[in-house]
Design a protein that fits this description.
single chain; alpha+beta; Glucose Permease (Domain IIA); two-stranded antiparallel ribbon; 2 helices; 25% strand; rod-shaped
Amino acid sequence: MAIGSGMIKTVLSGSFIVAGLLVFLTYSYFNYSVDRNELQRLRIATSQQRQVLHGLVVDLKGVHQQLDSLHETDARVRQLANLETVPQDVPVAIGGLAETETVELVDAVQQRINQLQVKLELRQQSQEGVRNLLNDQVSLRRATPKGWPTKGWLTSYFGMRKSPFTGKMVMHEGLDIAANIGTPVVATADGIVARIKYSAGYGKMVIIDHGYGYRTVFAHNSKIMVKAGQRVKRGDLVAKVGNTGRSTGSHLHYELLLNGVPIDPRKTL
């Protein structure tokens, strides 16, 4: 039975339509798969960026808190040290972030964190400088003689006086403090025992170097309680009152020198 040409055309047309439909469906499925994978990738990237942004915001808050804490501490310390409240070269004001895309926002936050870290380092350096200054002030205060070296009565002052041995006017370079033999003699500042010696005039002597140009001399002692090179602190026992050397009775001769020049110890008692 012969197949008509119309039938053949119909079959061929149907085949082309089916083939085209298959191609269209295959193309559509492929595009759908690609779009779905791309969407999933974008979702993952967005989630990761949000996590990074959240972490950076947390870091930013932490750096801000550290900077604020250092600023408050620095202000208190500088107030105690009588310095400027805020150092001129350490700015502490920080502006806000502009609204922008996620990637740009992450970069902006990271940049702000870097800026804050630089300011934080400058603030720490500033505070370290103040701390060193305060340490120097504390050291100077501890090295500056202050207080009575022994318990007793002032019997002779610093300055010109009549010598009890010759009757002539001579310079008395210290204070004489009368006390019983054996009365404790203490250091009036932190320092190092520079020398222990005996002289015909001053008897048993202790000389303490306190640094910053200060030295103290304790003379006429009955007993020395320290050794040369020994470190002492204010209030430490260094000797005991005596009557050694050229003396008219038991007492302590106490001298205070600044850069080798005797000064009146009464101002430090």
